[in-house]
Amino acid sequence: MSPEELVYLGVLAASIPVGFLFRFLSPPVKQGAALLLGLSITIATCQIHTLHSLVTVIGTWIIIRSSWRHAPALSLSWTFLYLLFFRLVTWFNLPPPTPYANAVQLLLTLKMVSLANEVSSFHIEKRKDVSTFAKSSVVGGLSQEPSLYDIVSYSYCYVGIMTGPFFRFQTFIDWLKQPNPQALPGSEPCLQRLKLVPVFGALFLAVNSVFPLSYVRTEEFLDQNFFFRFFYMIVVFFVFRMRFYAAWCAAEASCISAGLGCYPEKAMSKPGGGPTVSYSPDPSAEEKYDYRTIQNIDCYNTDFCVKVRHGLRYWNMSVQWWLHHYIYPNAPFKSYTLRAGWTMFISAYWHGLHAGYYLSFLTIPLCIAAESAMEASVRARLGPQGQNVFDWIHWFLKMRAYDYMCMGFVLLKASDTINYWTSIYFIMHVIAVCCIVVGRILKGAKKEPRRHEDREGKTETEAGDKKTD
């Protein structure tokens, strides 16, 4: 493990027992303590680079105070432009940020854009209430505009400060105002999320030691046969998954121990977004709670869902919610594939400026188009048994597509990514294009008989008319 990974592990390990102590604090003390602890972690790991996150927070606060109506668009522009400056600071003879500062900045960008949207929604609903005397229909909306102290507290809350998951400002406020946090489930769901972390961690260390990523960049690797080179991307993605499974499950456990994101099951919460249905606790019934709001990974469905598009839903789930609500609806395109491409481009930019991110993320829309074409032209014609076989083949290709795209994500450089994809003859790109072409051919062949029948029917009618004449 790298020194950075050890620091992340230490922060997560310490956050879990600390979280249980936060359940005994009053709302004002909890807010101040969470801010103090989170700011201490940030300063200790980021040092002078803490100023980047502070400038981002102050800038967002100014935008919200100046123009709440345009705050969503302005905050997105502000935070994403600052991300560009943050990544190019060496051009201005400034010291490069630490990996910890990058992690803090990424999550803070999500938080600030979400906050601006929440404040804007609050003002819009407030005006509707005044004009119509009706109760707001927004689920989980703000009850008042946050102060600068509230915004700073939310930004530097110690929970998930460097590892996520992302959570909205309203989720943070609900956490502070929990009426009886000690009574909320904690130990059992926390252990449930932690039980496989040692397994994921052990598999990550063991397999990574046998199949290091650095070997892909060597001339010796390129001399290996095709099947070995193809197999290597499967192993690399396995290591990649085990690393994030361990980290995100531990990060969820740190939220659970503190009670963050705990809502009644009837609220039908979504990862990242929180409750989707208005609810009120029933004092006469024993309430059931869940932590869906802070769930960031569904390990089983990530591995075993069938479609590429579904795989996105179960990976980094809180960030996927953010992209779906703040980026996808505002895409400058109408078709699903192009909207998905735009969303993946923004996601790549959020991750960084390395070409490997863009090569990987922008391959996803191609894969989605391929599976859509094959589903419409092939799967739709099959019976139940045939569809079952189709789904197994689809699942296998989905996993290979993610193996393939992962290489760009971890190799980062365009040259390294292209060299690897060249070594396996761009096989997944070729398969995706072939699926699209075959799908269109079969779709056209399916329509052709109808056209032929129409022409024959028309000819026979015309002949009948002539005979009648």
Give an account of the 3D structure.
The chain is mostly helical. The chain contains 20 helices and two strands. The protein has helices at 3-22, 27-46, 50-66, 71-87, 99-132, 148-155, 169-176, 187-194, 197-210, 219-222, 226-258, 299-304, 308-313, 317-326, 336-351, 355-361, 364-377, 384-411, 414-423, 427-468, and strands spanning 263-264, 289-290. It has a two-stranded antiparallel sheet with strand order 1-2. Helix 3 (50-66) packs antiparallel against helix 4 (71-87).
Give keywords.
469 residues; mainly alpha; globular
Please outline what is shown here.
With 469 residues, the protein is mainly alpha-helical. It has helices spanning 3-22, 27-46, 50-66, 71-87, 99-132, 148-155, 169-176, 187-194, 197-210, 219-222, 226-258, 299-304, 308-313, 317-326, 336-351, 355-361, 364-377, 384-411, 414-423, 427-468, and strands spanning 263-264, 289-290.
Break the fold down into its secondary structure elements and pairings.
Blueprint: H1 3-22, H2 27-46, H3 50-66, H4 71-87, H5 99-132, H6 148-155, H7 169-176, H8 187-194, H9 197-210, H10 219-222, H11 226-258, E1 263-264, E2 289-290, H12 299-304, H13 308-313, H14 317-326, H15 336-351, H16 355-361, H17 364-377, H18 384-411, H19 414-423, H20 427-468
Antiparallel strand pairs: 1-2
Helix pairs in contact: 1-11, 2-6, 3-4, 3-5, 3-6, 4-5, 8-11, 9-11, 11-18, 15-16, 15-17, 16-18, 17-20, 18-19
